[in-house]
Amino acid sequence: MKQSKSMMVLFLTPALVTFATVFIYPIIRTVFMSFYYVKTVTDSFGKWEFVGFGNYGKLMASSMFIQSLKNLGNIWLWGGIGVFLIAILFSMILTSGVKGKSFYRAAIYLPNVVSAIAMATMWIQYAFNSKYGLFFQFFSFLGMDNAAAFQWTSPDNQFYAMLIAYSFGMVGYYVLIFMAGIEKIPSDYYEAAKLEGANMFHQFRHITIPLMTDVFRTSIVMWSISTVAFFIWSQVFSPLDPDVGTIVPMVYMYNLVFGRNLTLTDPTLLNAGAGAAVGVLMTLLVLLTFSMVNLVFRDKKLEF
Amino acid sequence: MKLFNKNTIKKIPSYGILSLWVLFTAVLIGWIMIASLSTTREIFTNTLLKSGVHFSNYTKALINHNVGQYFLNSLLYTFSAGFSILIISAPCAYVLARFEFKGNKLIQNLFVGSLGVPIIMIILPLFALASQLRMTNSRILLIILYICITTPFTVFFLLSFFKTLSTSFEEAAAIDGCSPIRTFWTIMFPLAQPGLITVGIFNFIALWNEYFIALVFANTSEQRPLAVGLMTMIQSMRYTGDWAGMFAAVVIVFVPTFLLYIFLSEKIIAGVTGGAIKG
Asked: Can you tell me the distance from the alpha carbon of A238 to that of A241, in angstroms, rounded to the nearest whole number?
């Protein structure tokens, strides 16, 4: 095909300019900023004060930030295990020839298109409510008064309540991904295995799992990216002040830089440079999981 | 037992689990809808709709709680950003899909890589830049940010779509003396309509539900989109105590994407799996 230079420039420039403005320039500036003491985020470069790794040191010394990292790790690990196991189960059921497959699939994916603020409000104001809530009524109806009296949103329980509510909505996305992966596996593999006398478990262990490696790899990376951006659920579960039970790094950073919330941490920490350091750490976490996943699944690529 | 064969009976647990899960979703959403038509008193005494249907919750939310304004803002942001994204991304995706040149692969990799960059990695310099240009708390700024941030995903999505289109259209147009730029806008862009619509729906849903950028950049009452507005309402609940009004606001937030999904779920699902499996 004829290549037109002027057309290439004309067609690429707008997208590249937007990309440079919101990704390349900010990434570079955030990395720099994380090594400086910056009183307010709008300060010009001239007012920045070089502190080396000082911001990182202060973050690591802040118990609230460490707590936010722990919460993030728990969401990633336990939420990830729960979501992936349920999604695998559902995708196996849905690809086994049940009737109404597309209805179930669509209904399970539904929470993903609904605003997270709305979903989180439904959970906290209805499902978990201790006066008229769904779980309260359900367990009262069964006569299980202890379970009915369970305080889902008390400080001790709110982290797991939040994790359950968040994970519930995330399952649908991975069901779609896993179903597409399973449907790509040629059905004669399963037929051959059946003829050899392999049961469902063996088929799953020796056909589905190995041939889905690529899908799992992508899914773990996607899960990590969405976990790092965990923010809305934490805000809805602790709408007024960030709470030990629900705080995550993004909430910590938001309060550090934009919040008027000086009670969160020691006010001397209040500096946009530390906020930038949180951003850098989160980006490194994503890169780390990405390379770990590639390392673990290396040499396991199968062609079919 | 002729009615159920052995296979159906074996699948009863499967249907049970799926149905319970879906039932739970339905109860969650259905109860909110009913509660949004009851009074706050009825919600707390568990006697929903006892005194009839109260549409006044919606008028109260829309007018007293400013949700009407938030709704119009959300419409403005999603539609103006949504269309501009397509106009900027489609030509870029087309050139990357069709032309071979140095740096093509690099641009593609950068765009894909940016999908993994957390928003808090870029928000501070953007905020500083916006305040330097005296653009904070303007509607235009939010629209521009939405366009810029969504472009890499849109390019990535459309790129694989353009690759599936045959080159014979361009060859025929070139023989007829049509310039490449004109060929794109009059032939290829319309041909890409299915892909443009799918990615357009995705962007609509994502921008409608977007929260963090709006929270940082449009946090005055006049500029708030729905998601941020709803959160403000929740935060002031302990003063207003208007639970019914809040549930009405929740319904107003989720109904647009919910309706879109009911009509287009097959298209949306096909788009999710198509995009992710390749990645």
From this structure: 6
- Structure ipTM: 0.90
Residue A140 contacts B, CB cutoff 8 Å: no
Query: Which pLDDT score, from 0 to 100, does residue B278 have?
Result: 42
A263 in any annotated domain: yes
Query: Could you tell me the pLDDT band of residue B275, with boundaries at 50, 70 and 90?
Result: low
Among left, alpha and beta (phi > 0; psi -120 to 50; other), residue A245 is: alpha
Amino acid, single-letter form, for residue A150: F
In a domain, A274, yes or no: yes
Cα(B2)–Cα(B18) distance, rounded to whole angstroms? Answer: 25
Which of the residues B122, B124, B228 would you substitute to probe the A interface, choosing the one with the greatest number of A C-beta atoms within 10 Å? B124
Compute how many other C-beta atoms are within 10 angstroms of the C-beta atom of residue B72. Answer: 12
The mean pLDDT value of chain B amounts to: 89
- Reported as a pLDDT band with limits 50, 70 and 90, residue A265 is low
Nearest CB to B234: which of A1, A225, A236?
A236
**How many Cβ atoms sit within 10 Å of the Cβ of residue A39?**
13
Q: Is residue A149 part of a domain?
A: no
Q: Which pLDDT score, from 0 to 100, does residue B6 have?
A: 66
What is the number of structural domains in chain A? 1
Q: Tell me, yes or no, if A295 comes closer than 8 A to chain B by beta carbon.
A: no
In this structure, what token pair is assigned to residue B78? 């999603």
Instruction: Tell me if A116 sits within 8 A of B211, measured CB to CB.
Output: yes
Backbone phi, psi, residue A50, to 5°: -65, 130
- Name the 3-class secondary structure at A231: coil
- At residue A108, the pLDDT reads 95
Residue span of the structural domain in which A235 resides: 56-100+173-297
In 3D, which of A209, A211, A189 has the Cα closest to residue A201? A209
Residue A237 lies in a domain: yes
CATH code, A187: 1.10.3720.10
Average pLDDT over residues A112-136: 91
pLDDT of residue B1: 45
